[in-house]
Structures are given as structure tokens and as C-alpha cells.
Fold each of these.
Amino acid sequence: MVRTAVLVSGGGSNLQAILASQLFGEIQNCNLVSVISSNPGAYALDRARAAGIEVSVVDVSTFPTKRTFNTALMQKLGDLDIELVVLAGFMQVLQRPICKEYENRIMNVHPSLIPAFCGPGQYGLHVHQQVLDYGVKVSGATVHFVTEEVDGGPIILQKAVDVLPDDTAKTLQRRIMEQAEWEILPKAIDLFCRGKLTVEGRRVRIDEGA
Ligand code: GRF
């Protein structure tokens, strides 16, 4: 069983999707050891507690620098002997040491079709507003491995979602969560934990065999 930590900062709907998928047996070989939040007030912590998962808080506001925060987080992951790190609405950038230590073992879900509408400052409703302002007809979600470059790591899974004429950033955000994020993030975790992912440069090969 792959010892897994889910890192959160907010509402935790992606965490909820992971918990539900585990309950339905759609994620195999995954031991969800801990949910770690950078924000002590995150509702995601309540969701984790309700599911009986151990929670920890590494409160970013109590650290003098991003570097000391990253060091504390890395220490926590090491103490828990974590093998897979899942960023599910985690609002902090991971720095080089942590990305290197967990190379191709950290995954993130981003609410657009990377490489469009991604990178520094592209999070939450900003992403969807930019999609609407640009006028694209299709957006979606991407699960990718995490490197130092924000949203720049090898892509594991993507799913497209139509942009509708009357969409607001909020309606689009919700539809992309429901139709894409909540499906592809649990699926990527399952593939990883069953040893089905191989990274070759920028490409992630998926072994579709049973
Ligand atoms: C999601 O849109 C995810 O793609 C992004 O942050 C949001 C988190 O939502 N990285 P939640 O906390 O999982 O509800």
C-alpha cells in the first residue's frame, strides 16, 4: 500500500472525491495516511476528520519565510514516511528541495487544460475568468506531476469540459470540478498506486493493462 498524504488549504471538494472513490474501491493500493493543511481553518480538515483520517496543520502564517514553511512540511512528510503527495487545492508553492525529494511522487490538480491558463498567479476563479475573457470554447482540468515550475510538470491526465455561453467564472469552476477534477484526480492516484505510471522526460506513459 502506497503511503499517501493529501495536502489542502481550503474547501476540500477534491479531497472529498478522493475519499468517496476510496470508499467505492475505485482507488486501489493506497493508504491515505494523513491530510495536511497549510490553513488551520480549512473545511477540508473537517471532511478528513469525518472520514477518520489523521490530520495535521502546518500553518503557513506562523513561518517567517516560505523556505522555513517548506522545510517544516518536508519534515512532516518524512516523519509520516509518505511515498505519494497529492496536492488537492493546496495554495502554496513547493520549493526545489521538496520537489527533488519527491520527484514524480507529487501530483497536483489544476482547473484548466495545461499549458493554457496556468502558471504563477493562476488559481481559483482567476483561471476561469481568464478562460471566459479569452473566449475559448473548451476548458477542463489537468493532473500533473509537480516540479519547481508552477504547473509545469509532466501531465498525467486531462479532461475537457465545454464552456457554455452563459457561464460565469463560478458556474464554469463548478462544472469543471464535477465533470473533470473529481474524476481525474482519484483516477491518477489509483494509477500511481497500482504502479501504472512511468515518466519518460515530459511524457507520462500509462500502462492500461489490468
Ligand atoms: C480546485 O479547483 C483545484 O483545481 C485547485 O484548487 C481548487 C480546490 O478546490 N487547485 P477544493 O479545495 O478541492 O474544493
Amino acid sequence: MSSTTTTAGTSFIDPFSATIDLAEGVMTDFTRRTERKASSMRGHYADASALERLVASGDPLHYEVFEKPVPEEYGHLMYCISKLYPGLVGEEYFMTKGHYHSILQTGEIYLCLRGSGFMLMKTKDGCFAAEKMERGRMVYVPPYWAHRSVNTGTESLVSFCAYNAEAGHNYGDIETEGFVKRVLKAGGVPVIR
Ligand code: F6R
Ligand code: ZN
């Protein structure tokens, strides 16, 4: 470690790099992996019995997040690979839990590397937005907007995400508020309603 002038509250760390397998949609040298199976999605889908059938049939993986975490402090940038598998719960496409950042004034960038779907976003006072996600498309999630990704394709929806490392995640409010709209398969195509 070299010597430098640091500010209290922001740790000095050495530079590093990470390897991302763009074909598989994984960070190959991750040091933290979070997985969410169907059973961890209770309360989020409209068709609760369809989710229970999925849990009973082997509780498949819904999504994974790969990280090499940095200090959760002002000035650092957290980043990850988010890999959401394809599937349906009843008529509703597989999705992430979704969250507000605990520090609401922090945004996030998602760069979609693979697959297709939507980023659903909502604010505390009822605004709603949806942005298309597909390979090469970047979604800017501004401060104050909760965000949830939805996979409407037949392959994994993979994104690289970057955000303020001190942001934190507030899942509880989405569990109680829901997300305004859902993405459902209707007539064979995704419909947001
Ligand atoms: C981080 C972020 C993503 C998600 C990931 C899983 O702030 O938005 O890395 O954490 O896509 O989704 P959640 O966290 O909603 O389960
Ligand atoms: Zn986020």
C-alpha cells in the first residue's frame, strides 16, 4: 500500500480488476455471491400458489449477484454482475425483489450485457417508469427510484451494475408497497400492467 492523503470515512485501498465472462454472464473471480431461489421471492408475485408449486418442484434459482465488494463508504463505487434466469411464476416473468437504496439520494447504472427484459422503477410518491433492457443498453436509475429487473426473454438477463458503495438496500418498503405494475405474459408477449 502506498502512502497518500485520505479523508476520514473513505478507506484507502489498492486498485484491482475483475474478470467478467460475457458469454456466461458471471464474474469469474468474484469474492461474494448472493443467490435468490424461488422460496425467497414469497410475497412478490401475484400468483402465490404458482410460486409455491415452483418451490415444491425443486425451488429453482431465480437470480445470482456476483461481486468483489469494496468498502461501503462515501467515495467508493460498488459494482456487480446481476444474472436473472428466465421463467414464469403463473403468467408473471421472473424478476428481482427490487429495492430502494437506503440512502435515497443515490442512483445506479445498469449496463445490460445479455438477454432482454425491463427495468421497472418507482418512487415513494407514486411515479412509475419502465425501461427496456437488452444487450448494449444502459439504464440510468436516478436517485429516489426503487428498481426491479424483469426477464422477459428465454435466456438469462445479465447486467453490470455500478452505484455508490454506501447506498445500502431497502427491501422492506417494496415488500409492503409492491411495485405499481407487473410484467405479465399475455397473448404470448410481455405486457406491463
Ligand atoms: C444494487 C442493485 C443490483 C441488485 C441485483 C439484485 O444496488 O440494484 O445489483 O442488487 O440486481 O436485485 P435485488 O437487490 O433487488 O434483489
Ligand atoms: Zn440498486
Amino acid sequence: MNQHELIDKLYKNQILSQDEFVQLINNRDEDSQVYIGQLARCEADKVYGKDVYPRGLIEYTNYCKNDCLYCGIRASNSHVNRYRLNQSTILETCHQGYDLGYRSFVLQGGEDPYYKDELMVDIVAAIRKDFPDCAITLSLGERSYKSYQALYNAGANRYLLRHETASEEHYQKLHPSSMSLAHRKECLYHLKDIGYAVGTGFMVGAPYQTAENLADDLLFIKELEPKMVGIGPFVPHHETPFKDMPSGTAELTTFLISILRLMNHHLLLPSTTSLGTIEPTGREQGILAGANVVMPNLSPVSVRGDYELYDNKICTGEEAAECKGCLSRRIESIGYRLNYCRGDYIE
Ligand code: SAH
């Protein structure tokens, strides 16, 4: 099958075999990129129109007990200026976001044992109380079923936990031996079972990644049926073992965004900050390839530079209001608009 036939088959069946995905990825060229991008954008338009949903991202701690080899805030990086936001700062940040129009908040952080269940439940309950009309998304890494359940009961609706890579062998190359793909997947199924709208995802161009790995990622996503999939290029951080590894490309990232859109027309698909970091118009390209979510930074400016997962991360200097203006201009420049609603998955 040639590229057009493979893309047509994906369009029709919303899935391909492992071999076919590998072929589609390996043989991609400008022509197939344009073809799949148009189909994908067209399907996103049918479900979500010209709307792009903004989520206010609050990076509430950069302490982390894990030592993922790719991540700038890994435990063994002693050069990080570590910070934690307390409950009142987090709430104040949400209030600022709400006043700017945000109705969807994402709390993300390293895996920080300081935020035990009771504290995290208090924080979520306080946000829920002040903002009954907002979606609360958590991205706190791996926790117990009991913990996920308590946070859900306190008012969290969504949870982002990228599987990172669906190949056990590849997972081990990116993580210390204390971590496992099996546990990561178990967490994802627990979250789903509890009733969260679940998001997963992976880095594009992660060290040692092959087209077979990416095909496995796509097949795992088909099996999990998440409501959200966050993918962005790997970008090296100078204080990690992967400091000399090359970044992923915008070209492969947008190609995969289009594939994901054709696998599920309803998916919430962010055009990520890392995509905007490797290319000035990366986020716009992501939207045009089929993405429909952006995650502007709401974290207090004083800590933004310290949540450095990778080098040269954009948007670390501006106030939330400036970020909002910059992003809406960018989205409008390509014919789309930011819609400040909760931005739920449309069934
Ligand atoms: N501790 C949470 C949040 C992790 S940060 C968790 O474990 O889920 C969110 C995502 O950033 C990660 O899942 C990872 O895919 C991505 N990330 C980390 N380091 C990166 C890097 N160097 N380049 C690009 N993305 C990175």
C-alpha cells in the first residue's frame, strides 16, 4: 500500500496494524504530511469547530522523588531551585486564572511526597468549593487507587498521566529500575475505573525511540481509549544524562497528532509547550494538524523558570495575562479561537 492508501485505510477504520503504522511513519514525506493533516483538521473541525480549549496550567511543585532520565526536575539534579506552592497560593492562582476567563485548571507537579493524600484532598476540595463550574485536572504522577479515589471524591474530574512509551524495553531505557511500565499502565486503568476523564501520551523523538515503539504507543492508546492524549517532542535538559541527545521534531510530532486525530475524531489533543519550544510556530502547526487544546502557564512568574523539564522552555517570563494575549493572537492568526469553557470531551 502506498502512503495515501494507508492514510485512507486509517481514516476509514480508525486503526492500522503495527506493521502498517511503522510503514506510515517511516515513509512519511511532505505529500503524506499535507494529506493526513488536512483530513485530520477537517475531522477536528466537524467535532469542535474552530474552537481551541485553553487549560490553565499550575505547576505547583518541582520536587520529585523519581529520577526519569529525560526530565530536568529529576531527583538527582541538585542544581534545581526547588519550590512548593501552598494551598493559598494555588487558590489565588486559580482566582487569577478565573478572572482571566479560565474554566479549566491543571495542577501538575513532580512526584512530591510532601503532598500526602490529606493535603492534596484539602487543596482539591478548596478549588472545587470556590470554582464549582470549573474542570479540575490533576497530573501528579503515580499514586495508589485509594489516593486517586479520594482526590476524585474531593472534586477532581480529569487526570493526565502519560504512559511515556508502551514498550517495556524502551521504558527501562528512559527510567530508573524502580519504575515500571506495568505500574504506569495499572495506574491508568485505576484512574479510568474510578471515573476520571483520562489523558495519556508520550514524547516524540525520545532517546532510543523507534517507529515500532511509536506504533506500540498508538496501539496502546487505542486499547486504553483515553479522552486526552498529550504528545510533544522530547527536548534535552542540560543537567540530565540525555543532555546530548537530539530533540524530537515538529514534523514527526504534527504527523502523529494527525494520526491520533484520525484514530479518534473526538479526542482532546493538546498542542504542547514543548512543540512551541522547538519551533516558534510549533503550537500553531499542531492545531493545523488536528490538535484542539492549549495549556498556557498560570504558575506564578516567580517559580516558572524553576519548573524546567527541558531547556529553553517558552513562556517562563510573562504574566498570565500576557500569555493569554499572545496565545489568542497566535490561534486567531490561523483562523481559530480560544474558547474559555470547561472544554469537555464531546461524545
Ligand atoms: N510527575 C508527573 C508530571 C510529569 S511532567 C507525571 O509523572 O506524570 C509532564 C510530562 O512532561 C511528562 O509526562 C513527560 O512526558 C514530559 N517531559 C518530561 N521531560 C521532558 C523533556 N525533557 N522533553 C519533553 N517532555 C518532557
